[in-house]
Design goal:
By secondary structure, this protein is of the alpha/beta class. 43% of the residues lie in helices and 13% in strands. The strands form two sheets. It has a six-stranded mixed beta sheet with strand order 1-2-3-5-7-10, sandwiched between helices. Helix 1 packs parallel to helix 4. The N and C termini lie close together (10 Å).
Length: 327
């Protein structure tokens, strides 16, 4: 990536550079407790792809604007008026839902024939307006929506640069999804967490059910909080290993200060070593030890040729800090 490339613009995310090689991404919808609407999650992949490929970024802080919330999760009021969670008439209703109309239109278009096709069958008429939605096509539409949403949130996990999530206030639903895609999680004492999807009639489908069990100490506890939707506080999150630190002093600002300290420590290390470590940890998480060892050997057969190793060893002998080239 060229140094002159500009980051993608979004009114919902503030991007700053508080320290050398450190980026700070702030979720910016504080008047709605940083609750997510569709343009927000669609903005995540281009933003984190930019940060992933920027040679001027080595570590990332993720936080929420305002004093009340990291994020309250999905904006339920907005989601209830459009998209898959909107209320639609049942299949025997007199008029189709917007989703049904779109699906019926798409279904009829499947029979359109390009010019020059050898067959001559007539294009069938579109289904009447009162037709119920075709379950297969509705399922396909919902599948596409869900996987798109999943991929947007997973863009944090796929980012090559380590991310520390600094949480405060409410961290509900999608906030848990996002934080699980970060590499390190810390919070202020006032943070309140919940996997709330079950309370709106859903099994959480954006990542929590797949990732929380790999990030907490107890499978029983994971099922407890996911099946009840109950709130748990910062100290419980710490005991269960969901967060690695509760910053007891300074509230949100104290937690951000600790996040800055961590990000600075990581940014001062070799980017070859840091990005390799993240890649190998994530790759090995869902695989056996032998597979992880093999992949590590292949990775380091290239990475060990870096000049960073010699520079780091010289600096340690002299009691100083090495300076590393951009990557």
């Amino acid at each position: 990536m060229a140094e002159t490339d500009s980051p993608p613009k979004s009114q919902y995310f503030n991007l700053t550079y508080p320290l050398p090689y450190v980026a700070h991404v702030e979720i910016n919808r504080p008047e709605k407790l940083n609750a997510f609407i569709e343009p927000m999650w669609l903005a995540l992949p281009p933003l984190f792809s930019y940060l992933s490929n920027s040679p001027s970024v080595r570590s990332i802080i993720l936080s929420g604007a305002g004093t009340r919330a990291f994020t309250a999760g999905l904006d339920i009021a907005a989601a209830s008026t459009s998209g898959p969670l909107a209320q639609h008439p049942p299949p025997n209703a007199s008029s189709p839902s917007p989703i049904t109309s779109d699906l019926n239109a798409n279904a009829s278009s499947l029979y359109s024939q390009p010019t020059g096709t050898p067959y001559t069958s007539q294009k069938p008429p579109p289904p009447p307006p009162s037709s119920p939605p075709d379950p297969a096509r509705l399922a396909r539409s919902l599948f596409t929506h869900i996987t798109t949403f999943q991929n947007c949130v997973s863009s944090l996990e796929k980012c090559t640069k380590p991310i520390i999530a600094v949480m405060h206030g409410y961290c509900y639903g999608l906030g848990v999804d996002l934080s699980l895609c970060a590499d390190v999680r810390i919070c202020s004492p006032d943070t309140r967490f919940a996997v709330k999807e079950i309370d709106i009639g859903l099994a959480a489908d954006i990542g929590t059910l797949s990732r929380l069990g790999k990030s907490a100490a107890s499978a029983s506890w994971v099922k407890d909080v996911c099946l009840t939707g109950r709130e748990f506080d910062a100290q419980e999150a710490l005991r269960m290993g969901f967060v690695s630190r509760v910053v007891e002093v300074g509230g949100k600002e104290g937690a951000l200060k600790e996040g800055m300290r961590w990000a600075r420590v990581v940014a001062e290390k070799s980017p070859v070593a840091v990005q390799g470590t993240k890649e190998l940890l994530n790759w090995s998480r869902d695989r056996g030890v032998e597979d992880g060892l093999r992949y590590t050997a292949v990775w380091n057969s290239a990475a060990l040729q870096t000049r960073d190793t010699a520079a780091a060893m010289r600096a340690q002998k002299k009691g100083g800090k090495a300076r590393f080239e951009k990557l």
